[in-house]
Amino acid sequence: MATLQLLRHATLRLTLGDTTLLVDPMLAAPGGIPPIPNSPNDRRNPLVALPDAPLAHDALLVTHLHRDHLDDAARDQLPDGQPTLCQPADADELGDEGFDPRPVDGTAMLGDLTVTRTPARHGDGELAERMGPVSGFVLEAPGEPTVYHAGDTVPYEAVRETLDTHEPDVVVANAGAAQFVEGDPITMTPADVLTLREWTDATIVADHMDAINHCLATREDLTTALAEAGAREQVVVPADGGTVALD
């Protein structure tokens, strides 16, 4: 059965077909990471503990190398030589750190899993340029729902084009309205999740909330916005440790 378990923030266990991916592992204990620089508060990260849940997996998927998606604790705790799906820009660094990078330029295979890299934009304008390259990924396995992990992105035309091209059954949306002292949010806000809902009939699973100090929109903010819009059935907002059946 296809399942997605939210561990914390952007760290997921995704099972499709015969493959289980550990996505964007951030494994630090609470307070083990300094506050995000130039953010609106000085709380140390992560804000909450990792739930007591299994980390067993066949491969990693690292959408990009920001420390809330691959932290020092994960680098230290995960064994060397693991197959690691990634964007090409990150392959050399991951290889130098002992991972077995499997860069996805267009489409790649991992066992029975087809992985297609898709565009993403970590904010708008000059800020997005400074944030560096980020990617989304479409994941397909025979007889399983198609999953589009949009990555750390705001909704823009390339996201809509990805939805139209791949027609996913499930969309993972990194929400939380991550923001610096200046500039617009660099991940999806509650309003952006509602926009995403207008672009697709897929089930949307929203994560990336309540764990990092500059993610200012909470699960409560999102669920309130969804309730007001009558969108609760289409958008799932799991708690840390929660598992979503994707079939």
UniProtKB/TrEMBL annotation:
List the molecular function annotations (GO) for this entry: hydrolase activity
Q: Which residues form the Metallo-beta-lactamase domain?
A: 21-196
Q: Does the keyword Protease apply?
A: no
Task: Please list where the region (Disordered) is annotated.
Answer: 74-109
**Which Pfam families does the record match to this protein?**
Lactamase_B_2
Its keywords, alphabetically, are: Hydrolase
**By what name is this protein known?**
MBL fold metallo-hydrolase
